[in-house]
Amino acid sequence: MRIANLNERLVLVVDDNAGTALDVESASNGLFSADPQAIYPRWQEFLAWAPSADTSQARAFDPRELGAPAPRPAQVFAIGLNYRDHAAEAGLALPDTPTVFTKFVGSFTGPYDDVVLAGPTVDWEVELVAVIGTRARRVPAERGWDHVAGLTAGQDLSERTVQGAGPAPQFSLGKSFPGFGPTGPWLVTPDELGDRDDIALGCAVNGESVQKGRTSDLVFTVPQLIAELSAVLELQPGDVIFTGTPAGVGAGRTPKRFLAAGDELVTSIEGIGTMRHQLVSA
């Protein structure tokens, strides 16, 4: 199953190739709200209803009208150094526990929106993003997937100068400018994926591949992240986890390379879909 945020309304994506979707509020006769974020606290109820939805009322949509699948999470977690090759290119040791920071919700945007450059050192970071569907507190790793509503594509865009400013790194600020947290194009339930623990991901700038990886190379897998985070605090329905990026970021290159106005950033995740963003000057 795929769900999406279409013009701030929750829809079931009936055919992602043909671009058709079903408005959930209308199809459910008001049982479920049009608010995309409101579906996560009722995730199990929604899963039970969705197979019976009358898809004959599905309509074509413009992908440019898609927004973030979970647009207003209560909590956003982002994981650093979670691929071995990325830790190596950063010259840092692998962490013993997840390296956690946040991206503020004001950074969220859709899968096709323009992104305004916040400075001269804006970097790309393709990431698999997990959205929580069931409250999780002290969950063992073997039950971690039970708490995932679905997966989507994300970019952890980063202004590296701001990120590294001061005596202590400002990860959350450097990664939270408006538009620096795009997700989409929709949320895909894990059962739709051939192997939810081994998914290809990558991104390209102006048609040139700059990152490629597989989630089987994660240091901490999705269920392990849920176990580690829920050991500290309660994960709530609709919370978002950016799971980390593989090697190939601009700051890890020699010479360093950053995004410029006019660039097109294309982000793709196997079994989920593609996002396209144009970088524009302030």
TrEMBL record:
Pfam families linked to this entry? FAA_hydrolase
Q: Which PANTHER family does its entry note?
A: FUMARYLACETOACETATE HYDROLASE DOMAIN-CONTAINING PROTEIN 2A, FUMARYLACETOACETATE HYDROLASE DOMAIN-CONTAINING PROTEIN 2A-RELATED
Instruction: Give the highest taxon in the source lineage.
Output: Bacteria
Query: What is the designated name of this protein?
Result: Fumarylacetoacetate hydrolase family protein
Q: What is the lineage of its organism?
A: Bacteria, Bacillati, Actinomycetota, Actinomycetes, Pseudonocardiales
Can you give the residue ranges of the Fumarylacetoacetase-like C-terminal domain?
Answer: 76-279
**Which keywords does this Swiss-Prot/TrEMBL entry list?**
Hydrolase, Metal-binding
Per the record, the similarity remark reads: Belongs to the FAH family.
Which species is the source of this protein? Actinomycetospora aeridis
Instruction: Give GO terms: molecular function aspect only.
Output: hydrolase activity
